[in-house]
Amino acid sequence: MLRNTKVMNRFDLTQLLVAKLKDEAVVGGIGYSNFDLWASSAGRPQNFYMLGSMGLAVPIALGVAIAQPRRKVFALEGDGSLLMQLGCLATVAARAPRNLAIVVWDNGAYAITGGQATPAAQAGTDIVAIARGAGIARSNWASDEAEFEALVEQALAGDGPWLIAARIDGQPAARQTPRDPVLHRQRFMQGMGVREG
Amino acid sequence: MDRHPPESRPEAAADWPDRLYDLLRTHGIRQVAVVPDAGHARLIRRCLADAEMKVVPLTTEEEGIALLQGAWLGGEKGVLLMQSSGVGNCINMLSLGITHRTPMPMLVTMRGDFGEFNPAQVPMGSATQAVLEAIGALVRRADRPEDVVPTADATIRLAFNTFRPAATLIGQRVIGAKTFGKD
């Protein structure tokens, strides 16, 4: 399955994702994952941007999903970041939040630090196989843009947890997220309806 | 993790774990992130039995910091229960709470602290308070059973009123040094 998937572009796919969203939460992982989220939808108050803490997009999104069970929550995470915190897939599987969807951008590299290959790239590690093995049954590769959109629609319509993996190219993000953690926190909490303006 | 039920140990007669549970209820804690530890076993069991508390067992303490971040972002209060060795796993991740001004209360049971028998527990046990303070967390210690609840109460208040990571270290003297029959 991994070898039959098209190599896509993170910014394109992020745009396709946010175009389908209403009030769903999105947690953008460290680096280009959150940069492209900002580039695609800077005005969305339901977006949270991670400036550090590599590997924690999924467990942050899990905390939001548990706190707000009626809201769908997406975590956007790079393959290198997820590799740092693979145990979180078992944590998610055990908790089985119906409202959580994990999107993994897999370029087999630490793009922001110069494109060094991950160990997984050299080993041919299959993120979806890992996720299924961890107990997240609804884990799939998106073979092209159309299937990515279809998988996002399934995640929006049905019960998860979901994991959607997409092979992507090595392009840098379209823009950089401003590095103001208090702004991101405040805006997101307003977007979640737990903070007044 | 302790293979002996804590209730079977004589020092467990002190009821501070039950009063810690009451304290979490009083503060409206809803998400309880846990990496199991013998010192917290009774508290974890009480939380698991509470339908209003969402106990999330973790694979590493780092996830707990993230869970506290997500809980707060989503409008819920959380707490992280862990052993001192787990503090070492969290240090970089605590930058989340520092930079985003997020309340992150931690209740830490100490090892390598008082009467420890395992050499492997001593380096991190000795460093726990120093590294937490170095990253910017507020740290208070409880070394007598009667101090545990007031200190944890102060930590939870510090975390939620001043928007930062804060920890209570529950001394090994309170929990009782494990010996695994080596005494």
TrEMBL record, chain A:
Keyword field contains Endoplasmic reticulum: no
Pfam families: TPP_enzyme_C
Family annotation (InterPro entries): THDP-binding, TPP-bd_CS, TPP_dependent_decarboxylase, TPP_enzyme_TPP-bd
Top-rank lineage group of the source organism: Bacteria
Keywords assigned: Decarboxylase, Lyase, Membrane, Thiamine pyrophosphate, Transmembrane, Transmembrane helix
The Thiamine pyrophosphate enzyme TPP-binding domain, residue ranges: 41-165
Transmembrane segments: 48-67
Signal peptide feature range: none
Cross-referenced NCBIfam families: PRK06163.1
PANTHER family, sorted: SULFOPYRUVATE DECARBOXYLASE, SULFOPYRUVATE DECARBOXYLASE SUBUNIT ALPHA
Record-given protein name: Thiamine pyrophosphate enzyme TPP-binding domain-containing protein
Automatic annotation (TrEMBL), chain B:
Keywords: Decarboxylase, Lyase
Family annotation (Gene3D superfamilies): 3.40.50.970
Record bears the keyword ATP-binding: no
Domain of life: Bacteria
InterPro entries the UniProt entry points to: THDP-binding, TPP_dependent_decarboxylase
Keyword Nuclease: no
Identification of the protein by name: Phosphonopyruvate decarboxylase
UniProt source species: Caldovatus aquaticus
